Structure formats: C-alpha cells, structure tokens
Amino acid sequence: MSDTDISRRRLLGTAGAAGAAGLVLGAGGGALGHAAAAGSPTALSTVGSTSVAFHGEHQAGITDRQQSHGRLAAFDLAPGAGRREAAALMRRWSALAAELMAGRPAGDGDTGVALDAGPCSLTVTFGFGRSFFDRTGLTAARPEQLDPLPVFSADRIDPKRSEGDLWVQIGADDALVAFHALHAIRRAAGQAAGPRWEMGGFNRSPGATGQPMTARNLMGQIDGTGNPKPSEPDFRQRVFVPRDTEHAWMAGGSYAVVRRIRMLLDDWERLAPDAQEKVIGRRKSDGAPLTGGTETTEPDLEAVGPDGSLVIPANAHARISAPEQNGGAAMLRRPFSYHDGPGEDGAPDAGLLFVCWQADPLRGFVPVQRKLDRGDALSAFIRHEASGLFAVPPGAAEGEYVGQRLLEG
Ligand SMILES: C=CC1=C(C)c2cc3[nH]c(cc4nc(cc5[nH]c(cc1n2)c(C)c5CCC(=O)O)C(CCC(=O)O)=C4C)c(C)c3C=C
Ligand SMILES: [Fe+2]
C-alpha cells in the first residue's frame, strides 16, 4: 500500500485539518469535504467534516491517524447464538458503521447524541477473538495466529477485562461522536451479543499543537517515532496478512494486540528527567535519540560516552524493542492514553491502551514483548493489566459486511 492509497481512503476537508491533527502515518490530504460542510450556513469545521470511508481493502482505524477519542469494547455472543446469528450481527454492525462513519444517523432509533456533529474522522473497526470460532463452529477456520499469547513474567492480567468473542475499536475527534457510535453498536447487538468489557481513551485534539507531531503519552514521551511508515517497502508485509495466506478470509486483514498498560506514574515522576530519558533511550523534549540529532535521526546503538558506558543504555526501552534487535519483528503501534481516576491504591489509574497491528503477532508483538519482559528498564514503571488478541478481517467491499468471507465461506 502506498501513502496515496491511504490518502484516498480519507475524505479530508482541507489539508490543514490533517496537518493540525498530525498525520503520524504520513497520509496526505485529499480535497473533498463532507457534504454538511459545503458552503451551508451551518458549515462544519474541518475537524467535524472529515470522514473516513468504511468500505475498502482494509478496515479503517488501522493506518488512519490516531483520533482524539477512543473506545475499545469486547462483546460475547449470547448463549445459544451461533454462526447464523453472528453473520446477521456482522451484517447489521457493518451497515451501521458505514452510516455513522459517513456522518449519517444510526437509523430510526437514533438517540440524537451526535446530531449536530459531522463524522469527525469516526472509524469503527471489528475483530474476532479466539473464542468466536468455537462459538460459531468455525474452529477449523481459526488461524494459529490466534493461539493464546504467552504469559509474561510481569503480567497482572484481569481476565474479566480481557479477550472476548468480538472486538470493536472506535476512534473519533469528538467524544460525543465516539460515545454515540459505541452506544449504537451496543444497541444493534440486540439479543445476539452482550458487552464483556469497555475502555475509553484519548489522544491530542486536532489543532492543539502548533504543527503536526507524533503523539505524547502520559509519561510525557513522544511515542510512535519508530513505527513502520506507509512509504517503507515492507510496510504492507508487516501490517497486513498476505494474499496467499492459508486462511483466505484473512487476506488483507491484520491482527490487533490490545494491552491495557497501567503507568506507575508516582514512581516514574520521582525519577529525574535525565534518568527518565535513559529508561527510554530518547530525549523527552523532542524524541531525538540520546546519541543526538532530531526525532527522525537513527539512534547510534554502539556509541559510548566519556566514561565508556553506552549512551543508549543496554536496557533502554527503545533499544530493546527496535526491529534490528528482534530479527526484524515490528508492529504498528496506535494507542490511546487512559485515565480512570485514582486506583484502589490511591495512585492514578492511568496509562496506555496499547493497540498494535501486525500481519502475524508471532513475528510482531510476541518476540518483542518476550524481550522487553526479560530486561526493559521501563518494566519497573508499567503493569500490563488486561490483554486481548483479535483477528481483524480485511475491509468489506460495497454491499458486503466485515467477516462475510469467514461466516459465509
Ligand atoms: C511489545 C511491544 C511494546 C510494548 C508493550 C510497549 C509499551 C510501551 N512503550 C512506551 C513508550 C515508548 N515506546 C517506544 C518505542 C517502541 N516501543 C515498542 C514496543 C512496545 N512498547 C516498539 C516496537 C518501539 C519502537 C522501537 C524502534 O523502532 O526503535 C518509545 C520511543 C519512541 C517510539 O519509537 O515510539 C517510547 C517513548 C510505553 C510508555 C509503553 C507502555 C506503557
Ligand atoms: Fe514502547
């Protein structure tokens, strides 16, 4: 996929909207505004009028710019619901997502919550968890990539907030639009599926920074610099399942690993700024490697300081997670931050809804997390509290629904 493919998916009000929001994945701006914005007296801003297409080769919400509001939710099929009910559900959900992403209401029973807003870059992305295949009698069609993730030594995973038959990722540049979309999805589930868990997150608002820039997380770090770029020749191969895959229904799809990672912010903030930078191996101010340059300068992993020690320490997070240190393993990270008030311990229940995308988690998240688990300086300041692994089918063509090739294959 080229950058142009990505920009074609997006119908941007102006290039300015894209710039203000920071196109971390390098998509260019198109020129088409949402109809509601076209010269009417109640014209929407570019933030409101920007829409993302539901139909396409890949589902939306993978390579699209991170929106300012995210909602992640898992659903379980109802007792007695099987393949037929799941197919009908995916047909309903896909039709609904296409309407909502175009800025149209959720049918007759629309609650009116998003009434005055445009699409606000809404994306709705659907995935299937491991248990979905047993529930629908499709175990033979389940890829080995959905085998359970290993248990890592530092995991503190809450099963009630993990996994699930179906996964929905919602992103939008407006909190009400994001809420409205998930609420409509939940209502449309009807008797077929019920909620298992839900998490809300956020990123910078479009226009908050003077110029487009990579996101910052709640530790204050620039986070996303090393992501694979659409302009790189192996981008597609890293993120999307190839055409010749054994399970043809997943060709053009991707695997999402979702981890709710709490940041132990009180401990982190006790560290001096230079110690914080050594934990990551990059400068906090501008994300440049500790060996110098700018955010996009390649780190010099061999460089030593006057005292003979490595400038980027051996246990620095960015060193350990780099593809060169992991046999080329890479993933596209597209997280949301979260803050759910104080935890039971009184410290902030805040951190990262870490969502990463790859063609194969066994050549993406798993080897990298294995290595981080063994000796990442960041480990002392984070705790993985929930986990999910989902197969995200390719995008649906016009008239199709997401997962149709699996459910009707
Ligand atoms: C298993 C995968 C990863 C987890 C889990 C993870 C958690 C995590 N990371 C940060 C902050 C940063 N990560 C950075 C780089 C980076 N992280 C991963 C993987 C995981 N991170 C990768 C593959 C990379 C890129 C490495 C490279 O290509 O050089 C950085 C540096 C800037 C950047 O490249 O994004 C920061 C900062 C936190 C806070 C966190 C858990 C809460
Ligand atoms: Fe990281």
TrEMBL record:
Q: Which residues form the Dyp-type peroxidase N-terminal domain?
A: 59-203
Database matches in SUPFAM superfamilies: Dimeric alpha+beta barrel (SSF54909)
Stored PROSITE patterns: DYP_PEROXIDASE, TAT
Residues making up the signal peptide according to the UniProt record: none
Q: Which reaction does it catalyse?
A: heme b + 2 H(+) = protoporphyrin IX + Fe(2+)
Please name the InterPro entries in this protein's record.
Answer: Dimeric_a/b-barrel (IPR011008), Dyp_perox_C (IPR048328), Dyp_perox_N (IPR048327), Dyp_peroxidase (IPR006314), EfeB/EfeN (IPR006313), TAT_signal (IPR006311)
Needed cofactors: heme b
Say which family it is in. Answer: Belongs to the DyP-type peroxidase family.
Q: Would you tell me the protein name for this molecule? A: Deferrochelatase
Q: Which species does this protein come from?
A: Streptomyces sanyensis
The organism's lineage is: Bacteria, Bacillati, Actinomycetota, Actinomycetes, Kitasatosporales
